[in-house]
Design brief:
Family: Belongs to the ANT/ATPSC lysine N-methyltransferase family.
GO molecular function: protein-lysine N-methyltransferase activity
CATH superfamily of the largest domain: Vaccinia Virus protein VP39
Keywords: Membrane, Methyltransferase, S-adenosyl-L-methionine, Transferase, Transmembrane, Transmembrane helix
Organism: Xyrichtys novacula (Pearly razorfish)
GO biological process, one term: methylation
Bound molecules: S-adenosylmethionine
Helix content: 25-40%
Strand content: 5-15%
CATH class of the largest domain: Alpha Beta
Order of helices and strands: HHHEHEHEEHEEEH
Number of strands: 7
CATH topology of the largest domain: Rossmann fold
Length: 225
């Protein structure tokens, strides 16, 4: 039995391709990879230079499941919604079709143009979905009673301070994938990478007021420049 396996392997080995790639294949792979990198940097980098290094967040679109989970946590809510870093506009468009008056803040002008066109092609009026090329860290969010954020774990604490300082008491914040450290969540939807977390600002404020050593809970730690 062992002999026959060896024979099969030996015979098969004769027909296996050699590991040396054809120069043309290598060249094409190089060109494709360089092109992909160029495309990625085109979408991910513009506008980033002015954002401090520790607050930089790259572009990564929400999955369908994540968008659905976000919308689940906004059920029963109405009014104005801000998506912080709106990317290609998918979350804003989903929220606008659920009746919210949405603003997507996005620092990357290419993504802003793309999202505006997508809204236009889908027939969404600008009263329902507006895309603004603006750094949300430098934006006063006090007029929004709903906020969604799919960003990065490293910025959630600073963002939490900003939102606590600016949002009205009746605001709800939905964090996608990355929860706010130290905030008590109202509910969550989904699991793993698609999980989303809802927070009611009034509950977060009263919870943090009771915590003796949360320095930033109710005082302005984040200063807009
Ligand atoms: C992880 S992506 C999420 C995109 C979109 N919200 C979604 O769910 O598909 C984060 C987005 O935030 C944008 N962004 C990062 N920092 C920003 C800032 N300071 N102001 C506005 N947009 C920002 C990035 O360009 C990127 O498009």
């Amino acid at each position: 039995m062992e002999d026959s396996i060896e024979v099969i392997l030996q015979n098969h080995g004769k027909h296996l391709p050699t590991t040396k790639a054809h120069p043309l294949v290598s060249a094409c792979t190089g060109v494709v990879l360089t092109g992909l990198y160029g495309l990625w940097s085109l979408f991910a980098l513009p506008g980033f230079r002015k954002v401090p290094l520790n607050l930089k967040v790259p572009y990564l679109p929400s999955s369908k499941e994540q968008t659905l989970n976000t919308m689940k946590l906004l059920q029963g809510r109405t009014g104005r919604l801000a998506d912080l870093g709106s990317g290609d506009g998918r979350l804003v468009l989903a929220a606008s079709s659920a009746g919210f008056q949405c603003t997507g803040f996005e620092i990357n002008s290419i993504l802003v143009t793309y999202a505006r066109n997508k809204a236009r092609w889908s027939g969404v009026p600008s009263s329902q979905a507006t895309f603004v090329k603006k750094d949300f860290w430098k934006t006063d969010l006090s007029s929004y009673n709903n906020v969604t954020a799919f960003l990065a774990p490293g910025v959630m604490e600073v963002l939490g301070e900003k939102l606590l300082n600016e949002l009205p008491d009746d605001a709800r914040v939905v964090a996608c994938r990355f929860p706010f450290p130290g905030w008590p969540k109202q509910s969550s939807a989904g699991s793993g990478l698609d999980q989303t977390f809802a927070y009611d600002i009034s509950s977060v404020r009263s919870y943090l007021r009771k915590m003796p050593d949360t320095v930033c809970a109710v005082s302005p730690c984040y200063v807009m420049k």
